[in-house]
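Need residues for this backbone.
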C-alpha cells in the first residue's frame, strides 16, 4: 500500500502507512522493509529532484510530521540545509532560521558549524533581525574558540601564530614607519 501511495505522489499517506506498521509490528521484517522504503523516499524528496513537485509549505509540513525519517549525519544535515534554502526562496525566513539554528546549536561543529552560522546570519539579516545575526556569529565564533586546541607550550615555534612571530622578530620596521602610518591615518581622517 505504501509503495502505491509513493508512486501516486501521496507521500504523507505513504509515511502514515509506515508509521502504522511500525506501531503495530515494530519487529516484523515487512515493517523494516516499509520503513527502509519510506526513509529512501524521504531522502529522495529532500535531497533529489523528486520533491520539487511539493510546495515549500507542504515540504516543511511533511518534514516536521515525519522528521524521524531524516538520515543521521551529513546527509541529514544537507537535507535540512536544502529545506532551509527552499524556505528562504519563498520568504519563510523564520522557519528556515529555526531549522538552521537547531543545526548550529546541536548538530554541527568546526567549519561546518561556521558555514551554517553564516547562512543563518544572512537569513536573520534578510528578516531584518541584525541583532540575531550578530549574536549568531558571535556565538559560533565563541564556540569555535572554546573548542580549539590548547596553545602551544612557551618557546615552541611550530604553532606560533604569524603575529607572534612578527612581534618576536629581530627585524624591526624602518624608523620612519610609525610616522608614515600616522600620516596615512591623518589623511584617512581628513577624507
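Answer:
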Amino acid at each position: 500500500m505504501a509503495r502505491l501511495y509513493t508512486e501516486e505522489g501521496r507521500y504523507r499517506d505513504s509515511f502514515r502507512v509506515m508509521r502504522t506498521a511500525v506501531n503495530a509490528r515494530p519487529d516484523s521484517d515487512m515493517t523494516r522493509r516499509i520503513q527502509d522504503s519510506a526513509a529512501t523516499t524521504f531522502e529522495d524528496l529532500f535531497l533529489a529532484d523528486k520533491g520539487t513537485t511539493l510546495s515549500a509549505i507542504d515540504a516543511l509540513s511533511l518534514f516536521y510530521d515525519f522528521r524521524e525519517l531524516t538520515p543521521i549525519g551529513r546527509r541529514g544535515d544537507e537535507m535540512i540545509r536544502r529545506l532551509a534554502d527552499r524556505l528562504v526562496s519563498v520568504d519563510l525566513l523564520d522557519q528556515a532560521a529555526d531549522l538552521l539554528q537547531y543545526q548550529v546549536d546541536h548538530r554541527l561543529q568546526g567549519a561546518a558549524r561556521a558555514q551554517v552560522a553564516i547562512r543563518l546570519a544572512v537569513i536573520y539579516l534578510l528578516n531584518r533581525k541584525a541583532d540575531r545575526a550578530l549574536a549568531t556569529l558571535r556565538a559560533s565564533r565563541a564556540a569555535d574558540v572554546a573548542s580549539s586546541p590548547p596553545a602551544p607550550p612557551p618557546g615552541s615555534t611550530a604553532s606560533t601564530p604569524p603575529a607572534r612571530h612578527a612581534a618576536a622578530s629581530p627585524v624591526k620596521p624602518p624608523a620612519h614607519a610609525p610616522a608614515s602610518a600616522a600620516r596615512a591615518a591623518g589623511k584617512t581622517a581628513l577624507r
